[in-house]
User: Fold these one by one.
Assistant:
Number 1:
Amino acid sequence: MSDLMPQASIFAPVLYRGQDYFTSQYFHRQYLANSEVAEKTKYHWHQDFVRLMKAIDAYPIYLQQYDIVELRWVSKRREGGIDSAYLQQVKELENLFRCVGFQTLYLLNATAQVAMSHHLDDELSKQLSVAANTATARQMTGTMLPSLRAKEDLANYLAMAQMLGVPLHLAQQESVKMVAATTGVDLRPFLVGAAAQDRIAPDDEMLEPTDLAKVLGVKSGIEMNRILASLGLQERDDGGGWLPTRAGSAIAARHAWTKENKTGYNFKWNVAAIRAKLGAGAQ
């Protein structure tokens, strides 16, 4: 990658975590090339293309499964609190970050390309979307109904989570998200009534900053984020968001969120651990 000219590297294949990707710039260029009049397309500008991608309902799940990867550059002054593995991966892509002015870098694999095809208006994307839907329908016809596949997938995801020692309530939440992505079956109504969601051990309870603030008597999620930062558990990334420090990583879990047409990631924090740290600080 480092041997390529900047103009070329942004459109070249990218190897990340042992998987092949292309940048969003590459797919955007393909979209323009496949459009009859590039200047009149709905997503002529790259930022509009990215906005469409992030508006996909399943975007958080594609991130979770590494079909789409969001990477942010880490400046030298922020390196100290960043996970070393992530830092090394980012530094290996420095040439790519330079090409995009060190803005957020988006990598997409073949699965993400198919997902985008369902939303783009160029002829090739339409044909790809139809082909993908047809292939899925043929696989399901005469073999397995969506509800049966959802049941099988759920059992597999929960079993794997148990092997990894994931608390049951978290395993259920994430498994339901993945089942929705793979089968289209929404199991959230059942999740609401699941006993494990009401029997969370105190040591396993994880909450986002806004909910954590309510439990701990802090006036707002913004103030809670400031407190977490003051405890050395998180710090700002170059995009203005929050990332756990090395100390915070042990008691934080990445969490996908969706609100209206917006999606993304934030972090849930172990309530018992934060309460203990606040208590220690008060003493």
Note: Residues 1-8 have pLDDT under 50 and may be disordered.
Number 2:
Amino acid sequence: MNGNIANGGIAVQLHGGVVFARPNEWFLNADDDFIYYCDRNDSNRLYKMDGKSGNGRVVIKKPCSGVTLFEDGIYFISEDDKMVYRSTKEGRSINICSKTKATEFAVLKNGAVFVKPYARRICTNGDDIFYADGSNEMNLFALTRLNPENGKADVFPDIKPSYINVYNNNVYYTDRNRQNMIFWLNPSGGNMSVYGGSAECLHIIGDWLYFLVQKKWKRLSLLNFGETEDVE
């Protein structure tokens, strides 16, 4: 339930390895055997592709974004009306899930959908929701942590993230005010830089943080913050 989709969904784990999106693919999700993605070259329609054969087919014909696989369903934003919908993995039984229009959303652990106007890079660790809040005029796009059960929000006014992802109770983000360097944050206390270059598209796969530097993939262990590795 991390924030890979909020960062473009251009890398995904399948069969113990990592699959990187081709230029026409984004919002990648995977289950045991299939990859689900939107095709930029086909009006962002949703495809389901066999992870072994590479054969794919359209499962949702309408333009989609923010595709998120959760349990046995697919959640997505319809680009026709900007509402969040849920369907089966075969694209059947499509039902609306949101009460308001969305540009992004997160699926909570109970299957409920979180939508907030002007929130960017929405992601959740299952308990809390993290996002850059574009509705906070005093601290525009400051990192915010929200407890969905009691509505309590914690604002980190000095952190203005370009990208956000979560791993257990830790937050990883690039800071737009500090050359998009990558930082680690424990909301209960602790904050430090873990990569000193300019990075984007933070993806967490297994115990690794994958990210792009000048359009090339690198990765960093989340267990020990060791040396950054180039990804071939």
Note: The first strand starts at residue 11 and ends at 14.
